[in-house]
Amino acid sequence: MNKVIVSAKTVEEAVEEALGRLKATRDQVRVSVLEEPRRGWFGLFGARPAKVEVERIATPVNPVEQGLRFLKEVLSTMGLSVEVEVREEPEAVTFDLRGDQLGLIIGRRGQTLDALQYLVNIVANRGAETRHRFILDAGGFRERRRKTLQDLADRLARQVLRTGKEVKLEPMSPADRKVIHTRIQTVEGLTTYSEGEEPDRRVIIAPEK
Known about the structure:
Blueprint: E1 3-8, H1 11-22, E2 29-35, E3 50-56, H2 63-77, E4 82-88, E5 93-99, H3 102-106, H4 111-124, E6 134-138, H5 141-163, E7 167-168, H6 174-184, E8 190-195, E9 202-207
Parallel strand pairs: 5-6
Antiparallel strand pairs: 1-3, 2-3, 4-5, 7-9, 8-9
Helix pairs in contact: 2-4, 5-6
Region (Jag_N domain): 5-55
Organism: Planifilum fimeticola
Subunit structure: Forms a complex with KhpA.
C-alpha cells in the first residue's frame, strides 16, 4: 500500500492516521489536502471533516545497502557472528565474510555459499535502477576453490593427452564449470563442453578433433 485517503476532524489528525497506515514518516510521503474541515452552524449542522491523500514517495534503492542488510539478517537468523567486508569494484561488489564457523556458510564444495550468493543478488537488485553483480566469499574460499579446480583441470588434461580418451567430471556449478573451461582453453589439443541439466550438468574434457 503506497497511497491512502483518510478523513479526520483536522488535517493534522488525518495525516497522522495516514502515516500510521503507511508505516511512514512525514519526510517519506506527499500530502494533498482534498477537503478542508468545516465546523458547520453552531458546531452541529453542515460540519465536514478534513480529507487528505497521503502517498509514499519512491526513494532510490541502494543495491549494496539492500544486499548487505539482507545478508546480515540471514546470518543473524543462522545464529552466526560474522563480520562482512564490502569491496566495491567496477565489475562486481564482493561481500567477504570473516569469522568462525564459516564452514556452515560455505557448505559442501561451496554449495551453501553459492545459494546464498544467488539470493543476495536477487534481493539486492530488487527495485534498483541499475543492476549490480554481487560475489559472496568466505575467508578466501573462492580463490582456494579456483586453485583447486585449476589443479584438477591440469591433472585431467595430462591424462586425456596421454590416453586420448575423454574424461567426464562430476556435476559442478556454472561458476566451477567456467573455471575448468577457461583452464583447458590454454591447453593445445584439448577441448571442453558441458552436458546434462542443472544441477547435474558436468564438463567433458576431450581430445580436439
